[in-house]
Amino acid sequence: MITREExxxxxxxxxxxxxxxxxxxxxxxxILRHAGNRKWFAAIVDVSKDKLGLEGxxxxxxxxxxxxxxxxxxxxxxxxxxxxxxxxxxxxxTVLLDSPIPPEKVCDLIDLSYNLTINEGKSKKPKxxxxxxxxxxxxxxxxxxxxxxxxxxxKE
Length: 156
Known about the structure:
Layout: H1 4-15, E1 30-33, E2 40-48, E3 59-66, H2 69-75, E4 81-83, E5 92-96, H3 103-117, H4 142-155
Antiparallel strand pairs: 1-2, 2-3, 3-5, 4-5
């Protein structure tokens, strides 16, 4: 079992991150973001069990974390680890904070999520733009289309 406060201490000490509370309708939803790219690496929510596919309407604290899809398959069997709430279930998991999962393991999963999201959002190398055929020159036959393509390839 781990608390919100213990998570906040962990991410503050390790990454210098403070929780962000972006929604007025859900004031207890805390988002943990990278300082540089502002991408989420965790979301701490309070949600009723039935919304997580569990029995009952008791509200529980949980954390959404990005995870390697292969690891998700392995973790599915652990008590307290569920398919992600409101996130892509192929790449995210939800961990119940009151589950028997040791705090160290939750912190390891937070660190993994941090590392998986660190490079997201950075600009990628622009794609090479190839010259287009002039639209004013239109080959009339299939044979001439083929020869035009061949000529363009030879020019490159």
